[in-house]
Amino acid sequence: MTELIAKNFWQTVLGDIQIQITRPTYETWLKDTVGIKYKNKIFTVGTPNIFIAEMLQNRMYPMIVETARKIISPDIDLKFTVIGPNNSVQAPPPQRKPAKQKTREMISTPSLPLNNRYTFKSFVVGGSNELAYHAALAVAENPGTTYNPLFIYSDVGLGKTHLLHAIGSACNDKKISSLYITSEEYTNQFISSIKNGNTSEFRDSLRKTDIILIDDIQFLIGKEQTQEAFFHMFNYLHLLNKQIVIASDRPVYELHRLEKRIQSRLNSGLIVDIQKPELETRSAILSSKLEESGIYIHASIITFLSQQNFKSIRDLEGALTKITAFAKISKSELSLEKAQKLSADFISQTKKLFSPEDILSMVSKHLKIETNQIESDNRAKSIALGRMIAIHLLSEKTNLGPTDIGRQLGGRSHSTIIKILNNSKKKMDQDSDYKKTITTLLSA
Ligand code: ADP
Ligand code: MG
């Protein structure tokens, strides 16, 4: 078969493939491929870069070969080769050794800048975030060894980005190259690298980095092609022993529309969560932020702020910034009443707060079990269920963090409470009766 015939045959195959797959998939992976030769039952296809060659070989092969067999010959096999700008066949790029001990400035990476305020030192550690903090610290000290990947999740504004930046900064200090990127930015860069035909450079820049910090992974949801590329990138980096740290605003099992394969990769490392801070941590964060600002406010205001139901630390910081800004310009000392007014916008008003006793008696009435059974170690099914419901409600309808809830329920540990909370969230997905009970009690 001559080169021209091979080219034409492949065009026909592409025409058929085009009607089987979506347009973006076609344009991303197949549009720029060419038929090169057909010899010994092997049809060689040229691709613009190694990335596309791998993708076609590993992910789309069955569909492509089936179409080629229909059009060219039933016993055909396909081989993908990278072709250069003049359609010359190139050997795949040699695998370079990972660039250890390089500073970020020395290599061009698609990294986003790090906020130098987000360090381990400025991160206040308490029961709600200590696991995440220690895991992040361990990763910064020994990248690629213990916890890989490290997956950190929490609601917004509770310190995930802060920890990712802290890892990045600590590594930079030690001249270990790191790369911080949000999954949204990753998607943009990935797409533009395809458009510009430099996917291999994009991939190279990742390969040169020792720690890859990917923030807000939930943005990959619904972006199938980027997920596909992400999955391969992930495996590739993992094989090279690169440390991968991922932050998400929800747990892995709630990333519903993320490919199962990616979910299982995320599950294969260490998963840590950050909960809303408890009273002590809130107070410590307030003190540390105040110290940083160098502004004095009365202790009653600090006590007031630490007792409020802020949705996140970001909101708590927002209220404090407003108060300190006002304190700075006002001549007399700021009153508690004024501080209450200034912070009102940041405090969750919609949620009516309950006392722990209210919650326990609510659950006890609804499920017809005694409150002291809920607090006890009794593992009878109905009581354990009541306990799980109570813990769920305590976390949603009171100002208590997991450590406080544990204390309230007969001295259970922080991690036990987190485990039960996660089980309860999972059960809500799987058991509609359970979900109904929770939503009914939550709306009470
Ligand atoms: P997330 O990424 O989880 O949405 P961020 O990391 O952006 O949250 O945190 C929101 C704000 O709260 C940031 O300004 C961050 O510095 C601050 N913050 C969060 N947790 C802590 C903590 N434990 N100690 C000090 N500041 C914190
Ligand atoms: Mg964040």
Task: Describe the model.
With 444 residues, the chain is an alpha/beta fold. It is 52% helix and 11% strand. The protein is built from 20 helices and nine strands. The strands form two sheets. Strands 6-7-8-5-9 form a five-stranded parallel β-sheet, sandwiched between helices. A four-stranded mixed β-sheet has the order 1-2-3-4. The N and C termini lie far apart (76 Å). 38% of the residues are buried. The structure holds adenosine-5'-diphosphate (ADP) and magnesium ion (MG). The site of magnesium ion (MG) has 3 residues, from helix 6.
CATH architecture of the largest domain: 3-Layer(aba) Sandwich
Indicate the radius of gyration in whole angstroms. 28 Å
Largest sheet: 5 strands, parallel
Order of helices and strands: HHEEHHEEHEHEHHEHEHEHHHHHHHHHH
The CATH C-level name of the largest domain is Alpha Beta
Helix content: 40-55%
Q: Which percent range describes the beta-strand content?
A: 5-15%
Query: So, the CATH homologous superfamily of the largest domain?
Result: P-loop containing nucleotide triphosphate hydrolases
**Count of spatially separate domains:** 4
Strand arrangement, major sheet: 6-7-8-5-9
| Mean pLDDT metric | 85
Low-pLDDT segments: 91-109
Number of strands: 9
What's the shape? elongated
Question: Count of DSSP helices?
Answer: 20
Q: What's the CATH topology name of the largest domain?
A: Rossmann fold
Straight-line N-to-C gap:
76 Å
Bound ligands, named by name, code or SMILES: adenosine-5'-diphosphate, magnesium ion
